[in-house]
Amino acid sequence: MSQKHFALILSGCGHLDGAEITEATALNIALSKAGIAVSFYAPDRLQADTINHLNGEIEGDERNIMQEAARIARGKISPISKLDLNKIDGVALAGGFGVIKNFTNFLDKGEDATLSADIGEKLKGAIEMKKPIIAICAAPMAIAIALKELNIKDASITFGQAQNAGAFLPALEKWDIKHIETATTDAHYDAQYQIITGGAYMDGNATPYEIFRGALKAIEIYQKSTK
Question: Is residue 166 scored above 90 in pLDDT?
Fold first, then answer.
């Protein structure tokens, strides 16, 4: 049996303006533990803003999403435009506020949000091809917007506990996407659309080990779905 291969898409580096590092690492390790090869991808463009992670304040310097994500990928990363969905078995997305800021316009548009064209092409393509997608923390919102843009109204995702999902839930309701509550260490599987989602640091009190257990659960669900 040939080795499975996932594309791990990152939105930068740092939970306030890019990818959440613990979540990205947890997914990478969980995929590796399962014997699944990982290639990293990110948009090659400027991120929406740059946040000082010591004080949470916006800084003036501009940063490139892919260059920042390369810190997590140890330099081995490709632009999202180079992702060939025909050559991978699945897609994984770590969370972090960068998913919302750099992949969508949800903060400005709310229920009328759309995906950035580069990310939208790949996520909608993966959904249409029924490629398995794993998304945790805030990343399920990018999946939800992709579902909305495809006019899919019978899908389900999770952000973990509803109390941690904030402004996301009214948008899901408007888009006819069901939210399923799950524990941080668990994941939800929408078998019809091959989408696996988990709450991760949507629970701000979660421990790194709980984040890792949630990533392991998502990969376990994927493996069971392919048997």
Answer: no
Cα(153)–Cα(85) distance, rounded to whole angstroms?
A: 24
Amino acid in the structure at residue 156: S
Can you read off the two tokens belonging to residue 158?
A: 């999770």
Q: How far apart are CA 99 and CA 36, in angstroms?
A: 23
* Separation between Cα atoms, residue 203 and residue 179, nearest integer Å: 15
pTM here is 0.96
Strand spans (E) along 14-128? 37-42, 50-51, 58-59, 77-79, 90-93
Q: How far apart are CA 18 and CA 14, in angstroms?
A: 5
Three-state DSSP class for residue 103: helix
How far, in whole angstroms, is CA 183 from its chain's centroid? 17
Q: Mutual orientation of helices 117-128 and 139-149 as an angle, nearest 10°?
A: 70
Contact 75, 39 (CB under 8 A): no
Interhelix angle for 21-33 vs 208-225, to 10°? 40
Per residue in 64-122, pLDDT (tens digit) is: 999 999 999 999 999 999 999 999 999 999 999 999 999 999 999 999 999 999 999 99
Place of tokens 């992702």: 83
pLDDT tens, position by position, 205-225: 999 999 999 999 999 999 999
Element containing residue 42 per DSSP (H, E): strand 37-42
Whole-angstrom distance, CA of residue 88 vs CA of residue 93: 14
> CA 214, CA 51: separation in Å to the nearest integer?
27
